[in-house]
Design goal:
transmembrane; HATPase_dom; 12 strands; alpha+beta; histidine kinase; Sig_transdc_His_kin-like_C; Beta-Lactamase; 11 helices; Helix Hairpins
């Protein structure tokens, strides 16, 4: 595995690479530009010199030798074409270059200006007619781009070194500035991993880093809120567990010590049984709620007639409601409502909603179990005539422990997990559930299961 490198090292390396590429490109462009400019200037200078020499020789030939020597000192060779047409000169290469450039074609109105190659050398030729039979050619070797490049190598290397040093310093400073908020964010994340929830990332640095910091802060807020909710839920569950456990333990000690005897024993046994059943129901709900998030949560899907299932459930809850003085009614269709689902889980959903409704419905108020079909979707409703909920409570009704924490003092008997369990079951069945006000005056819980026939 390759060892990861720091942002500072990577940024510095990128800056160095960019500086090196820029220096190389600049050197190539500079060499070509200098070579082209040098060649143009050399040609213009040579043309001006040819004009001056031709004019002087046309007036007098006496200074021809001196002119030739002066030009040779400046790196310019002179070739002549005489009346016989032969091209002569002291430099053989210059003579060849003059011939290739066509010095014999030079006339007073049409000078010769050419670039020619002799061997491996590039030469500039400026030919001028002195008179009708004589002409001269000034020949100068052109420094190629390679030659200029060799002369520029030292300067380019120096400039490259300076540029790399500046790039390294700038890259390091930039990397430090960019990595500082990242290191701060990483430190906050590490503290969050160890359990801290009071730290936040300050909004500093570039826009992208600020966005990362804000995301970390939002995650910290969400974790703090979620953990607070979990603590409240655990406290609530522990209280709900402790209450029946205390009753069972107290009555069991009374039986063991002989405090309860005679005719009181059956009633104490019934109390212990009810509290044990309450414990069993609470533990079962907790286990089901924990299993909902597992991949191995099992659903036994089958073709189910919801009309028959609702009728079975209605028979049970009609009896329980009668015992509590609550008016129960069932509103179900006369025809079957087939749905492919898990009948045990659907019954668990209906029973959970009905038990929650019965707990808050006062005697004489209604409790309704309804079933209908809407556009291929089976709709199960449990409505009650209880105190209902506020608009905010309806939105958070299925969040674990929220309603229990809010109404435990005024509506005792709940565990805080019933509606959360129902929501999880409906979701795993592929359906949806929503809460809202009912026409009976209390709350309405609506379950929608797709695929109704």
């Amino acid at each position: 595995m390759n060892r990861p490198t720091s942002l500072a090292v990577r940024t510095t390396a990128v800056c160095l690479a960019v500086a090196g590429v820029m220096a190389l490109v600049a050197a190539i462009v500079a060499v070509r530009l200098v070579a082209t400019t040098s060649r143009d200037l050399t040609r213009q200078t040579l043309a001006d010199q040819a004009d001056v020499v031709a004019t002087q020789l046309a007036r007098s030939r006496l200074g021809a030798l001196r002119i030739t020597q002066t030009l040779r000192g400046q790196g310019v060779e002179v070739a002549r074409r005489g009346a016989t047409g032969a091209v002569t000169g002291t430099d053989r290469v210059a003579v060849l270059a003059a011939r290739q450039a066509g010095i014999e074609r030079a006339t007073p109105r049409r000078p010769v200006s050419a670039s020619t190659v002799v061997g491996w050398e590039t030469l500039l030729v400026e030919g001028r007619a002195v008179d009708a039979q004589t002409s001269i050619a000034l020949v100068r070797r052109v420094e190629t781009a390679q030659g200029i490049g060799r002369r520029l190598v030292g300067n380019v290397v120096f400039a490259l070194g300076v540029g790399l040093l500046v790039a390294a310093a700038a890259g390091w400073l930039l990397a430090r500035r960019l990595s500082r908020p990242l290191r701060r964010t990483a430190a906050v994340a590490a503290a969050m991993r160890s359990g801290r929830r009071d730290l936040r990332v300050p909004p500093e640095g570039p826009l992208e880093l600020v966005a990362v910091g804000e995301s970390i802060n939002e995650l910290a807020d969400a974790l703090e809120h979620s953990e607070a909710r979990q603590r409240e839920f655990l406290l609530s569950v522990s209280h709900e567990l402790r209450t029946p456990l205390t009753a069972v333990s107290g009555f069991a000690e009374s039986l063991a010590d002989g405090v309860v005897a005679g005719d009181e024993v059956p009633e104490v046994g019934r109390v212990i049984g009810r509290e044990a059943a309450r414990l069993d129901r609470l533990v079962s709900d907790l286990l089901d709620l924990a299993r909902l998030g597992a991949d191995d949560f099992r659903l036994d899907l089958a073709e189910v007639d919801l009309t028959a299932l609702a009728a079975e459930s209605a028979a049970v809850w009609r009896t329980r409601c009668a015992a509590a003085g609550v008016e129960f009614s069932a509103d179900t269709p006369a025809h079957p409502v087939p749905v492919r689902t898990d009948p045990r889980r659907v019954r668990q959903v209906v029973d959970g909603l009905a038990e929650n409704a019965l707990r808050v419905t006062p005697p004489g108020a209604p409790l309704v179990l309804a079933l209908r079909v809407e556009r291929g979707t089976a709709v199960l409703e449990v409505r009650d005539g209880g105190p209902g909920l506020s608009e905010q409570d309806y939105r958070s009704a299925f969040e674990r422990g929220v309603l229990h924490a809010r109404y435990s003092a005024t509506r005792p008997g709940g565990t805080g997990i019933g509606l959360a369990l129902v929501h999880g079951l409906v979701t795993r069945l592929g359906g949806t559930i929503e809460a809202g006000p009912a026409e009976e005056g209390g709350a309405r819980f609506t379950v929608r299961l797709p695929g109704a026939g």
